[in-house]
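lol so apparently i was supposed to do this last week
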Amino acid sequence: MVLNPVISKLSGKLVVLASASPRRLEILTNVGLRFEVVPSWFKETLDKSLFKAPHEYAVETARQKALEVARRMPFKHLKTPDIVIGADTIVTVDGLILEKPVDKADAYRMLSRLSGKEHSVCTAVAIVLCHQQENEEIDYQMTDFYEETKVKFADLSETMLWEYIDSGEPMDKAGGYGIQALGGMLVEYIQGDFLNVVGFPLNRFCKQLDLIYNHDPVSNDVEHSVISSNGSLTNSIANPSSNSSLSSPTTSNPHTDSPIQNGPSASPASKVKRKDGQSALDDSSWALVNSLSKCSEGQENVSAVGSPVPPVTSRRPMNLPYVVDNVHTDDLKRVMELMDGFKASKVLFTASKLRVFDLLETRPGLVGAEVAQALEASLKGTECLLEACVSLGLLERKQGGSSLLSISHQEVVYENSRLAQRFLQSDSPSSLLGYMEHCDELVWPLFSHLESAVREGTNQHAKVSGKTITTNNLFQDLYYFRDAQKLQFMRAMHSIAGVAGPAVATAFDLSRFKTACDLGGCTGSMAHELAKAYPGLSVTVFDLPSVVEMSGDLFKDKLPKADLYILARVLHDWTDEKVHALLSKVSDACTPGSAVLVVETLLDGTRSYPALQSLSMLMQTMGKERTGSQYTQLLRQHGFGDVRIAHTWNFVDVVLAIKN
Ligand SMILES: Cc1cn([C@@H]2O[C@H](COP(=O)(O)OP(=O)(O)OP(=O)(O)O)[C@@H](O)[C@H]2O)c(=O)[nH]c1=O
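anyway here it is w/ 5-Methyluridine triphosphate bound
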């Protein structure tokens, strides 16, 4: 091949593309490369929070994809490749990593985020060179790189967005679009390598091959990780022909600062050194990975630091935990978090109820015994609770660092974390204590009957309080039954509106409206936020007689006149039948050009908060959360033609619908 002497260097070698992406296959085929495709089984589930920058996540994923295939082929395909190429493409916007959408709602979420903005597309490529030695062991050498391209999207209308999503194109593509096809119509400009966006940075790949195959190994400075067959690793100058001269497989542990032998005990992610000499994970990740590896691996593996690691031959796949353990570690961490979720919630509720955060606001730096005394609680229980709060990031332990073993309890003092100062102190403007109390007292007991709720499809109050709650007596018999319950519910709604209100008020420009009426507006905190954001807007609150002065039943009484109606966390309480009844009333009260602002948590198929909240509504009211398109459809059926959706990434999202 005249055009590219680099590609021709690969002829006669068994080159494997560890990717199922048809785009990568096409790009490499087009330049005359001969290769086999063996899609990687590596699941893209690395914990993104463990990486300092998005490209590090992509690089590590590409490495794992390539390594998985390189390690699998000798056993499953009974042949050893010479070179395995893995890649991973991610889109980053607003500090978020977008991969392939899981469904249409996810694609919608991604594309609406990209609309009108510039974002980055990063493709990482990992190249694994495999060399079978005479004793049949295999040496793996790896090099990696990433390429970044900026892409600017035009403003996308709802119609355009949905037409594109309905074309099916977004589903197998990072960020939910394909620049090479219909998605090209969404793009205003790009800065950088086009093929990098499509999924493979060909130019950079050729340069990398050139460094590997055409340069004098002594003069080139391509540093890359080397994983020998026994799982150990070092950094070396690229020189596949001289694998016998690899330097000793040691690197240093950032925690001990002592040289350690990287045996199979080290986490795959922490084990591989990056080109810049940094571990792919930061220090805190070391602690996490190492502690988790204690759970998932044998003790002798963990204690292998400094001790010789028994050689592993290519015939012993069971002793090659490199890829497998990484997947298991992430999955195990996730499942442990889920199993413990209820304990964490209860720790949060209990510490809030005992007013631990208020105490430490007024008296920061108390020792456990002082907290116990102030709470009139046991020392043993208080210390356990405080430590649990520290582990959950609610409190900070001061003096003596993080090791409980190295300090006596007397020296340990506690302070509120930033999160607690913001959301858990009762005098904070964004305090969530009211909502937390509601979750603890009302929602928590209902959730112990989740199985019945799922089987029966009804609310579970009869099991908890012996009271039958139907949609006819929902508020009077449930939330407003006694003064104490009413106040608790009002505090809950008030605290959510306090946190979500500013984002709701500014999700759309509402300055053209002169009068607004918050239907079911409870304590008026959402109304207050709107009035604050729009000084020209006069807002009234309409709710049941026991709640406000301007009172009435949304379903029975005449609605006050306004040119903007607000329905904040109201529709999710009701069945579709009741929602139709309510929207028809609101629509009748609207004149053309006036509007309704629906404030709800929108189901999007990905976030857990709306999905769990939907179960909560089933158990409380027999209502449910809905998707943006379900609300759009409902509103259109009631004469609201122009429907727009804004995601606030807060408790609630916002739908603005203008009456025809
Ligand atoms: C932004 C963009 C992305 N893509 C495709 O998005 C997938 C990313 O996913 P991945 O996880 O990197 O790869 P994969 O498809 O799952 O394959 P695999 O390598 O087996 O993980 C790749 O396909 C890319 O082409 C396009 O086709 N066009 C674009 O404009």
